[in-house]
What does this fold into?
Amino acid sequence: MGRLADQMSSSCMSCGFLYDAVFMSFLTEIFLSAVFILFNSVQKYFIKYIVEFLLLISIWIFWNYSVFVDRESSWSTYDFQSEMYYTFSQSFFPVIILGFGCILLLHFKEIKDKFISFRK
It folds into this structure.
């Protein structure tokens, strides 16, 4: 959604894209930290990774949808289906790749230990 960074927000005309991104990131960081701490007690690693991955990508897609609605579709005549299509088409691959990378980095030590014990 970087191409929308230069467009004016419909909710706050004087707010820049950086302000919106930092505010959304801060709120999401608190929420995801709390949820990931709760998931830390789950012993089934595969289920934990899948749930964390799905939660992460759904939040990122929601962010992209919010940015698109705030900076593009609110100034135009998009319907909900068009908004969702545009959001998914523009953010599907980046969100999947970044989500996979984040889960890998968050649980690198656990994944490495499992892989090494599997090879022996």
Remarks:
- The chain has a mean pLDDT of 81.
- The helical segments are 17-39, 45-71, 80-106, 108-119.
- Residues 55 and 108 are 18 Å apart (CA to CA).
